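Ticket #4471: structure export looks truncated?
Reporter: QA, pipeline team
Priority: medium

Steps to reproduce: submit the single chain below to the structure queue and open the exported record.
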Amino acid sequence: MELQVNGAAAFCYTGGKAFDPAKPTVLFIHGVLNDHSVWILQTRYLAHHGWNVLAPDLPGHAKSAGSPPTSVQQAADFVLALLDAAGVARAAIVGHSFGALVALEVAARAPDRVSHLALLGVAFPMKVSAALLQASLNEPHKAIAMVNQFSHSTLAPPPSTLGPGSWVYGGSRALMRRVLASNPAVNLFHTGFQACDRYADGEAAMALVQAPTLFVLGKKDQMAPPKAAQSLVRAARNAKVVLLGVGHQMMAEDPDGVLLAVRDLLRA
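Actual output as written to the record:
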């Protein structure tokens, strides 16, 4: 599905089902150097169980045109404009990593438009080490290898996104390389990491959120360890925490665990 958002084409994966205005909607927001494909299991399940699914590629990423957001706030502007373009007045919002910060900002700015909020692999502040920021700028492929080392707790968990025995580390690395190459005009890696590093409004934003909030955190996450989310958990009014025994790339390492956690939130 393609929508015109802020004058540019935005690609949204819909889980294999046509968009139906009569159904409730859940919107998924990916993280840095990812795209809609990280949500493949969760989006297809929900699309076949009564939900509209919108899983966009962020502007300037993969199949979406436009200028990549340089801040969490700009990305939140895009999400709200996307909902307007789709004619969606109210939606559940699910975000991972950088996408979780964006989802939080959306829920804070427009609490009446967010029915449920799910924050996966979130941290606040989401600081990025100086060495990793520098590598993302000058040696992005080296930084991709570094991030994947920190983001995975195992090589081939059963089951995994593409089936038992799939090499999740290699799949994630290939995806990041592909998304990086999709926009030769902008270093999406460094731009995204800077946006994470500079975001300072997390606790203030959480205080404005009205929707029930789910935190899905990885016990083995070295990029956003569970302790780094506790300031947001404490600031949330209506929070539930689910701990999975995985790393940062939880949609690949435990896709079923992520799906069940999100499904239970939406049922509530």
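Status: closed, not a bug. The export was complete when the record was re-opened. Leaving a note from the reviewer for reference: Residues 2-267 form a domain with the Rossmann fold fold (CATH 3.40.50.1820).
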